[in-house]
Structure formats: C-alpha cells, structure tokens
Amino acid sequence: MTVEWKDMMLDKVAIGPVSARIYQGADYGKGPPIVLYLHGGAFLDSETNIDRPVAISLAKSGAIVAAVDYSSLSGNLFPKALEVSFSVLSYLANKRAAGLGDRKSLLFAAGVALKARDQMPDALDGQVLISPLLDPFMGTSSIRKADAIGMRQRWTEGWSHYLSGGGCHPYAAPCLCSRLSGVAPALIFTAEDDPLHDETLGYGARLKQAGVGVRQHVLPAGTGWPSIYGGKSEGVPEWQGHVSRHFGSFLRDVGVQPQLH
Q1: Rounded CA gap, 64 and 58, in Å?
Q2: Exposed/middle/buried for 153, CB within 10 Å: 0-12, 13-18, 19+?
Q3: Who wins on pLDDT, 235 or 161?
Q4: What is the pLDDT of residue 117?
Q5: pLDDT band at 257 (very low <50, low <70, confident <90, very high)
Q6: Of 80, 86, 84, nearest to 119 (Cα)?
Q7: Phi and psi at residue 88, in whole multiples of 5°?
C-alpha cells in the first residue's frame, strides 16, 4: 500500500496547538485505526518534519498514524512531555468522528498507556511498543551491545535529560511500575541484535503476568533493526515488512477480541 503524509496543526488540543505529521495509506478503509506515534528519539530528538519509517510501516497496514511534535512544548522533559502526549491522546479519543478516523476507529498508543488506564479507562484499544526505553538504570545484559552500535552515550544522556524535570515516576520508567494490570493489549517488537532486547521482553513478561494480552515478536539479527533509533547497522534494513505484517495481524485480533491471551 502506498503511504501518503501531510503536516497539520492539531489546534484544539487542550494543552495548546500541537503540530503533527499524519501518515495514511492511499486506500485505507472505513473506520481506520488511529495510532498516536510518539517517537522517542532517546528523549533528545527535536526534529519534527522528517519521515518516520516506523510510522510509514504502521500506515501500510491501513492505520492513520499521527506522529506528533510533543518536544516543542515540553522540551523532552518529564512530566511535561507526558502531559502534552496525553493531551493529544484525549483529543484523538474525543475527536475521532471529526478529522481523523470515525467513531468506529480503534485507538492505539504506548507511551501514555499507563496514564490512560488510570485516567481514561477503555480509551485505548491497544499499544505498540517498538524497542522502548524503559530502564533508566540501563542494567540489562543486552544493553552491553549499545556501545557497538554507538547508542550507549546517547541513551545515557537522554535518560539524564528526560528525568531532570522531575522524579523517576513509573509513568516515566514503566519498568519500575508495580501495577500493570488493566493496561491496553500490547504488540511488542525487538530483535536479537537489539541492545534493548532484554528490557523489552522483560516488560512484556511482566505485562503477561499482570493478565495483559501480549503479542511479541523478536526479529532475527541482521534485519537492520538498530536503524530504527539511529544505531549503526550493516546492510539494508529489512524490518519494515515485519512491522507492517504483524501490526496488521494485531489489528485484526484486537478488533475481534479486545483482550488477547
């Protein structure tokens, strides 16, 4: 499916106007799912008008993907970044019938899933976690690979910057959250050569233990996976098809059976 994009201003968001790049397939169907895409950028990325390969891959499954610029209003600091993102989520949840999608559209987001569970129960139909940064202590075994792909210093600086605006709250570092039950079903991606492999799968295991529906996919080494967050990677990236295909399957599962097991 060919994916088109347009830049627009979400000017009715409660916290203030937020710019977004909207990706959608040229022939998306009725009631398309909506994805609030929060590109992490190691909590340092401030670029807003660049293409997001992950967003394009999700849109190829028929979703409308809103890649929002939360950094301009928040400085990439917690809790402001979360407040901006959650405000956009509230806007999308209440405005599906006017602008993006319609009343039947499923809604997906990850970075705000815990807060959505606590303050907007049942607003989210699912969440997509793509090698998320979850552990500010960077204490897993796989994170040792970060030096080899040039990401350890960036992730260290990113965590230091993000948490400099407040304490280490579970909303900021979900790996520290002791109560995970009730969050939206999760689709999780990592790869064998991903330094974030261990914390990603560890979080997925804890979600399962809490009774949350989880689909997780570990791509083989050599698919260029580290390129999704700017890591060094040999060869041409081959992960896009995997993301698009598995997200399409997740959409069908969630649409038929909201709680996956």
Answers
A1: 8
A2: exposed
A3: 161
A4: 97
A5: very low
A6: 86
A7: -65, -40
CA distances from 182 to 24, 92, 108, 123, 193 (A): 29, 21, 15, 12, 31
Least confident of 41-45, 179-183, 249-253: 41-45
Distances, alpha carbon 175 to alpha carbons 163, 187, 220, 236, in Å: 14, 16, 24, 32
Q: How many secondary structure helices (H) and strands (E) does the chain include?
A: 7, 8
Give residue 261's pLDDT band: very low, low, confident or very high (50, 70, 90).
very low
Quick check: pTM over 0.85?
yes
Q: Phi and psi at residue 229, in whole multiples of 5°? A: -120, 20
Q: What residue type is 130 in one-letter code?
A: I
d(CA 137, CA 242): 30
For residue 168, how many other CB atoms are within 10 A of its CB?
Answer: 14
User: Of 95, 76, 78, 77, whose CA–CA distance to 36 is shortest?
Assistant: 95
